[in-house]
Amino acid sequence: MIYIVHGDDISKSRILIQNQQKKLNIESRIEIDITNVTPEEIYEKSHSNDLFNNPPFMVLNITSAGKTNMDKYIEMLEKAPIATTIIILSGKSLPQTNIFIKNAERLKARINANEMVPQSNIFAFVDAVFYRQREKAYSELSKLLKDQVSSFEILSMFFYGLRTLSSAKFSSASFSKLHNFVKRKALSQANLFTENQIKEIFEELRIIDMKSKLSEISEELLIPMAIEKVLNS
Hints:
Blueprint: E1 2-6, H1 10-23, E2 30-33, H2 39-46, E3 57-61, H3 71-78, E4 85-90, H4 99-102, H5 104-107, E5 109-112, H6 122-130, H7 134-146, H8 151-169, H9 180-190, H10 195-213, H11 219-231
């Protein structure tokens, strides 16, 4: 998930970043200045989970970007995993002509001009769904939609959560590399599903994803349908 945080009050921007990091329960972050990193290095860092398989939390400071050609950086940022959090930080207000602002939609980025950090938490939503907590799941979904998180972005996180749960249920090799907290959570969720149910959910979500891309399912119904497929499995 990408955020563009800009404005003259850099201290306030830093507080927003700290709050977002705390909200996601991420212990460390990667600080990068745009003048000291190549586009390829950004791509590599965005795909580099830590030893416990936790996705990165990156702060890319573009304050000193100047007139550097940013096209390649935009291309690499667009390829960042959805589970990776990237804060594009500027210590000054960015005009609408700025390349990052102009490409915000392409990057699926949320623009924050020293405002409050969005209140939604896509990980809390996914956890609620796979813990079969209907009321909480829809409550978290309401927050996500209020923060204008796209249904397609949310659906991609369904698959992310389902893969983690599956790795626990089927004792995959990658499961042993996860952080103990993540493993405990995945195991407790996996206990709520049989192996056949998990396989059926994968297939149902695959069909929903395919139909959404063919415009056979409206974006408004996409996530509620996915939620019900999991809860009623």
